[in-house]
Amino acid sequence: MQVNRELFDHVMVPNYNPSEVIPVKGKGSRVWDQKGDEYIDFAGGIAVNCLGHSHPNLVNALKEQGEKIWHLSNVMTNEPALRLAKKITDATFADKVYFANSGAEANEAALKLARRFALDNYGEHKSKIIAFNKGFHGRTFFTVTVGGQAAYSDGFGPKPADIVHCDYNDLETLKSLIDDNTCAVMMEPLQGEGGIISPTQEFAEGVRALCDQHNALLIFDEVQTGVGRTGHLYAYQGLNVTPDILTTAKALGGGFPIGAMITTTDIAKHLKIGTHGSTYGGNPLACAVAEAAFNTVNTESVLTGVQQKEAMFRELLEAINTKYNVFSEIRGKGLLLGAVLNEQFEGRARDFLVASMKHGLMTLVAGTNVVRFTPSLVIEEDDIKAGLARFELAVADVVNG
């Protein structure tokens, strides 16, 4: 059987348009395709591969647990899930954990919990959810409607009701929308898909204060920002603004599918037995790998290393920009960075991505105007330098047409 890009068009639903390159092996921040061509990975599986490829801690955890027990069901609990939950609660504001398989599922659980909490405490009228334009919270029908990009939720029939949006960092509009019928405000503590947009400190603190004022829960979607990505274990810790509910996925499993919703005991008690569930959520195999990833990332050396690597990325990207003048700014935090294209190159982020691939570099975009970098949190400095040298060649290609 010829396993190539053409086969994709024959056997896969056409909702993706993947690259011609099919990677077959990865080690650290390097990846090799079917032809043996090598790439430096600044994409990290969209902020998932927090420890790069084939990290020994993850491989060992997978092998070890794989020979013990993979799956039970939530009729029973298991040791890896309990250990991981204890570690997450010890390291965060939360007391309780619900495990799922993805960020969308963690967000679905968070939204259902917020609605149930409000119903139990205040009554049916308190159901409004406020979220932000350009936000992204997953692709289930509930989460995609809460996400602030209508293009992703239009065309599937009637949407879940009582969801409203305003611009990120616009505290005044939020003040006009929030009221005592609001059950939750959902936000990313740094917008990812929407263009790598950081909140102002005033905005983050203001959202928290408004939620307190109106007895609304504050949900932080940390699917992309969580588990070390910003140089803190979770981004809320760098903002000093604590949510009521937080969701985490992507980097949590280092590449193995797992998500979690975490919250306080007082809020968690409203998801009573039978109100929500997941067949695979919290299975021993996923939790064992996630525990290894969490243990590895949640160290001072890795988290301070992220901040040092951010400084190196910024410095080298600025040097490229001094030469070619393509970016208006470099924004983001830690190793969730976006190079924003200036007016001359507006809307051409994908051109930079395609050119980068030709020079052996994997990058991402965040919208049409931002080239996004989400490499491994433990990427070696030599790989950063080599990757950005390749990026400079890609920039030169785009600039020179």
Automatic annotation (TrEMBL):
CDD domains documented for this protein: OAT_like
A biological process from GO: L-arginine biosynthetic process
Annotated pyridoxal 5'-phosphate binding sites: G103, A104, F136, D221, E222, V223, Q224, T279
Cofactors, names only: pyridoxal 5'-phosphate
Main location (coarse class): cytoplasm
Biological pathway: Amino-acid biosynthesis; L-arginine biosynthesis; N(2)-acetyl-L-ornithine from L-glutamate: step 4/4
Catalysed reaction, written as an equation: N(2)-acetyl-L-ornithine + 2-oxoglutarate = N-acetyl-L-glutamate 5-semialdehyde + L-glutamate
Misc. comment: May also have succinyldiaminopimelate aminotransferase activity, thus carrying out the corresponding step in lysine biosynthesis.
Record's protein name: Acetylornithine aminotransferase
Modified residues annotated as N6-(pyridoxal phosphate)lysine in this record: K250
Cofactor binding notes: Binds 1 pyridoxal phosphate per subunit.
